Amino acid sequence: MISFTSFPAAFQQSSYAHTRHHPDTKEDMMDVDDLHNFGLQDSKLTCPGEYLTSSQAFMRGHGTYVDNEEVIASVAGTVERVNKLVTVRGIRSRYNPEVGDLVVGRITEVPSVFPGIETSSGVDLATGTASEMESRRKLETGRCPHAVLRNGQLVVVPPILVRRLKSHFISLPCGVDLILGLNGYIWVSKHVKQNEQEGEEGFDAEAVYSNVNDNIDVSTRTAISRVTNIVRILASHFVPLTDALLLEAYEWTVEHEAEATSTLQEDFGDALVASVTTGQ
Amino acid sequence: MFELRSIDIDLGQQGQADGSAVITHGLTHVLVSVFGPREAKMRSQTMHDRANINVEVSVAAFSTGDRRKRSRGDKRILEFAATIKSTFEPVVQTGLYPRSQIDIFIQVVQQDGGLLQACINGTTLALMSAGIPMLDFVCAVSGGVHSTHPLLDLTTLEENDVPNVTIAVMPKTRKVSLVTMETRLHVDRFEEVFRVATEAAVVIHEEMKAAIMARSRTLIASMKTGSQQPGEMEE
């Protein structure tokens, strides 16, 4: 017998609990206007249109607006308060750049004058080089302003998962380097030896500006794709990326003798995240 | 006395979209993906003081009872998209993102009346999951009149037979950002339908808010589990 179901079978994956309540019973939302508890609980959730506080006592920050002397949330996320400033931090939003951030990106356009980026190392931001190479670069104020990224691949994760760390350059002992861009772009590549990386004086222009990949042996390629897949798994489970976590996850996959390809299977990913987040 | 069809909301990730939502009102089933704010594809569309909202609607050929393929340039669909755009323009804080564009792509998978309300509610949810600042929720619902009695949340059959109106309400202020009618409705009946529909929008708001909060809660929880690592640096 053939049975028909309505188009979506069911939202099994849905995180949304089906609340079937009488229209008169309002769900008990949090009372954010309770100012005494404001700073105590670390994550107060709110969503657009929710009253936060009075605008006379507090200043509005990002993610809020003022209407009728009330500070009201404009994004869904957590309420944060710093002294008199009330902000709402959206959970999943586009990357907001700040000065000093390390980003991974691709130069799409090069204006005739290159404004805004000054280099301390004395290396001219050769506009000619920039325009003729459409490869990915990283820009960093201060040390080594930009370099062509090669010998690797790019993974994109939600920007909130990349926290501000002491170093955004991670070298895993498996011969893989990661560059965690704060914009959520992550470059996973073959390990570069330390002396090649920091040649301030004897700046090897050939090595830095080359856009030709080196020869990468099979084991390194496997390691790169394994790390890439781990990043994807962690991102799909919305786990913030740290060097310790990545290393632990990598060791876990090696321990379980998983092929780099099989790591993307769903049950494997669940097991991985479960084991690394419990800190075993 | 008044009843809405069952609402299902899924805010799971859909591909590369910044925000997405699947919403069903009864048998009407709509998928909305939001991209942006991002750089506009066409320079001519950028505005120096605010973001441009671009709405594209595509209706699946199999979504209605009679299989009919509508092209993208269909006048009815373009007007439908323009309606949604004008509904959201006063609510989304476009002034925060000058020279950029917010793309809203709506896929109608199945329709059984109340298509506009489903699209508007889905778009609200998708915009919020994309983290785009908005003044408030926009909750839409359709209403009609059968002889003298108001009805809510009409199906296709009801829509074909009774005069109907779709309204979109911002629940906090009870401001109305859309009222649209394609049929004629007696002016004496309008007020009652409007009042009932506004109340219904508040009920829908509770559902939508619960969905958004539940998603925020799960995401925050999973971010917490990851940050209990010893290697984590304090901010």
Overall description:
The complex is a heterodimer of chains A (280) and B (235). With 280 residues, chain A is of the alpha+beta class. Chain A folds into 2 domains: 35-90, Beta Barrel (OB fold (Dihydrolipoamide Acetyltransferase, E2P)); 103-277, no CATH class. Helices cover 21% and strands 21% of the residues of chain A. Chain A has 6 helices and 14 strands. A 4-stranded mixed beta sheet of chain A has the order 1-6-7-3, with no helix packed on it. In chain A, strands 11-14-13-12 form a 4-stranded antiparallel beta sheet, covered by helices on one side. With 235 residues, chain B is an alpha+beta fold. Chain B has one domain: Ribosomal Protein S5, domain 2, CATH 3.30.230.70. Helices cover 32% and strands 29% of the residues of chain B. In chain B, strands 1-2-3-5-4 form a 5-stranded mixed beta sheet. In chain B, helix 1 crosses helix 2 (115-129). Mean pLDDT of chain B is 89; it is low at 229-235. Chains A and B meet through helix 5 of A and strand 1, strand 2, strand 3 and helix 4 of B.
What's the arrangement of secondary structure elements?
The complex is a heterodimer of chains A (280) and B (235).
Chain A: E1 44-46, E2 51-54, E3 59-60, E4 64-67, E5 70-73, E6 77-82, E7 85-90, E8 103-106, H1 127-132, E9 136-139, E10 146-148, E11 152-156, E12 169-172, E13 176-180, E14 185-190, H2 194-197, H3 205-209, H4 218-236, H5 243-255, H6 266-277
Parallel strand pairs in A: 3-7
Antiparallel strand pairs in A: 1-6, 2-5, 4-5, 6-7, 8-9, 9-10, 11-14, 12-13, 13-14
Helix pairs in contact in A: 4-5, 5-6
Chain B: E1 7-10, E2 19-25, E3 28-39, E4 52-59, H1 75-88, E5 100-110, H2 115-129, E6 139-146, E7 149-152, H3 156-161, E8 164-170, E9 175-181, H4 187-226
Parallel strand pairs in B: 4-5
Antiparallel strand pairs in B: 1-2, 2-3, 3-5, 6-7, 6-8, 8-9
Helix pairs in contact in B: 1-2
Order of SSEs of chain A = EEEEEEEEHEEEEEEHHHHH
Count the domains of chain A. 2
Widest beta sheet: strand line-up of chain B: 1-2-3-5-4
Major sheet of chain A? 4 strands, mixed
GO cellular component, one term (chain A): cytoplasmic exosome (RNase complex)
Protein name (chain A): Ribosomal RNA-processing protein 4
Keywords (chain A): Exosome
GO molecular function (chain A): RNA binding
